[in-house]
Here is the input.
Amino acid sequence: MVQVSVIIPAFNAGRYLTATLRALSLQTMSDFEVIVVDDGSVDDTVQVASQFPDRRVRVYSRTNVGQSAASNFGCSVATGQHIKFVDADDLLNPQHLQLQLASLQSHPWHVACCSWGYFRESTTRFCIRSEIANADYSDPLDWIVDSLSCDEGMMGAWRWLIPRAVWDACGGWNEELSLNNDFDLSIRVLLASSGVRFSAGAVYYYRKGVSGALSGSVSRRSQESAYLTTLLGTRSLLQREDSPRIRRLCADRFQQWVFRFFPEFPDLVLQAERQIQDLGGSRLQMQGGRLLRFLLPAIGWRNVRRLQVLAQRLGWQKVQRWKQQRRLRQIP
Here is the structure.
């Protein structure tokens, strides 16, 4: 049995997987295994993983069953005392696993949390996100409230080093979910724990702009998943604490998705708005740049959203990607 099992579900990730595995091979601790679960890739993902020169890497191939099922399978064959999820296109700094593991000493029912930030092709101009929730918490619910209320609300499963007992208690990934599946999982992981230990110095590099990435999907199935995972997360939170702060938090989360669902998925908009009403309402405003802030009071968020969708269809996404790349290049 090793200290840490790193689980990497991979689908058509051959382009990036070598860099991810290299980052793991450079970890300052050695007592870990890497389990790559190929989810029916049609590129060279299996070949890249199988040929990587590190005996700690084990590779499994499955039919295309989805990220959640692939992740659960990885955990079922893992031997580690702790579970760490890593996306197949992301990176970790060399001290990451060692620092997260050290932060859990004497805290066997806590989960360890890391710092993170976005990058594209290069990490030379990478910038760590400054967040209120980068701290220790004796109540995991307080971490959730601070993260969703004050920070970006990044609930990626890769943030955590999870003791095996906590993982078993949380119930694993919901295999019905695709987009935003981390939201439901992270809430259950956190609520199954006794608290959060922040691992200062453990950094996760989250790659942006990957073609075909699950986080960028706008299919009907992905949007239904986003609604369902928000509903499941809401139920878990209210079961722990049915209070005004939790109701407001969940209503705002649904409102964020209303802005995303409109106008392509009117039925999901109606379902989400019913949830918002039942939770007591949301005052959340659509977020965006200067043009959006100028248009919002003049024409309302629905018309702003219609313009956004039209612009995307006309190729505005290319301009947005260029602007994001420009902002990243300006990071010192």
In short: Strands lie at 4-10, 32-39, 57-62, 82-85, 91-92, 110-119, 160-163, 195-207.
